[in-house]
């Protein structure tokens, strides 16, 4: 069961933010489909509803939070531009939103970022600043001959410094009230289509999606168990949930690159502790098998991070037999060649 709702979590205020975000996203974000599979239902002995955020603008749920946060900025801040840090999906979302609104965007990305996500971010017109191993291309983007992380700065420090130097507004990937509220609209839509759910399985990186999803579930389906799923190698959220303090896992080695965040956020953590029922993990092997199922049987291209919730269900990490279960497929931005290698190896 979830912990008692912390005093810091203003449920009335959060719900108002969530509903305002839904109105702000109406007609802008895709109302993505909810998919079902008789084969999947039989396999897990439950009625399963998959929210296909892999079909969202930019290929992931991140568009929701980025639009909700950036579209609310005062005109003066918009003109100066925005900056974000991300390993891929938030980067693409911020770049896409900035292009749609006609404002400048700079994105700080790690040198190991997926080439597909890097190309998409640049394709949306954002300036990309790479840091860390493999970041020489970042210097070429900026034309200054030196990578921004050479002095040991991490992505948060780099983005903060550039924001101050250039007068840009920082749009964090998860630890921001408007981002969280925007992400929660995916779960709102899922519950509105599927009806009351007994459980909702949500991928977890920094906690923005599951925080918003938990708020949506509390609003529309008070009895729903919200279960967060992380990669085994990056179980900082599960550890934090158990210990009651924010734990860190630095640079976890997992194919779920969208969940390689080192820790939950200062804003997301109390929401998770107050509204989430359980946190669990899925192995990379289970992620590959879940990808195989949705690719082959449902014709849905979903990335490893996107199937975290499904992998926990099909891999036996949670027993939800006889239940009505929602699963958020959070994104579909995966390199086809890399995915082919994973699937062929199993």
Give the low-confidence spans: 1-5, 137-151
The number of E-state strands comes to: 10
Task: Estimate percent helicity.
Answer: 40-55%
Secondary structural class: alpha/beta
Gross geometry: globular
Please list the strands of the largest sheet in the order they lie side by side: 1-2-10-7-8-9
Tally of individual domains: 2
What CATH architecture of the largest domain do you see? 3-Layer(aba) Sandwich
Mean pLDDT: 92
**Strand content of the residues, in percent?**
5-15%
Radius of gyration, in Å, reads: 19 Å
- How far apart, in Å, are the first and last alpha carbons? 36 Å
Largest sheet: 6 strands, mixed
> What is the element string, with H for helices and E for strands?
HEHEHHEHEHEHHEHEHEHHEHHEH
At the fold tier of CATH, the topology name of the largest domain is Rossmann fold
Number of helices: 15
Given this structure, which CATH class of the largest domain is correct? Alpha Beta
What features would you describe in this structure?
With 346 residues, this protein is an alpha/beta fold. It has two domains: 11-61 and 176-345, Rossmann fold, CATH 3.40.50; 63-170, Rossmann fold (3-Layer(aba) Sandwich). It has 15 helices and ten strands. It has helices at residues 11-25, 38-44, 62-70, 75-80, 89-101, 115-123, 136-142, 155-166, 177-194, 208-220, 236-243, 268-275, 284-298, 308-314, 336-345; strands spanning 34-35, 47-52, 82-85, 105-110, 127-131, 169-170, 199-203, 225-231, 278-282, 324-329. The strands form two sheets. It has a six-stranded mixed beta sheet, sandwiched between helices. A four-stranded parallel beta sheet has the order 5-4-3-6, sandwiched between helices. Strand 7, helix 10 (208-220) and strand 8 (225-231) form a beta-alpha-beta unit. Helix 1 (11-25) crosses helix 9, helix 1 (11-25) crosses helix 10 (208-220) and helix 10 (208-220) packs across helix 12. The protein is globular and about 55 Å long. 56% of the residues are buried.
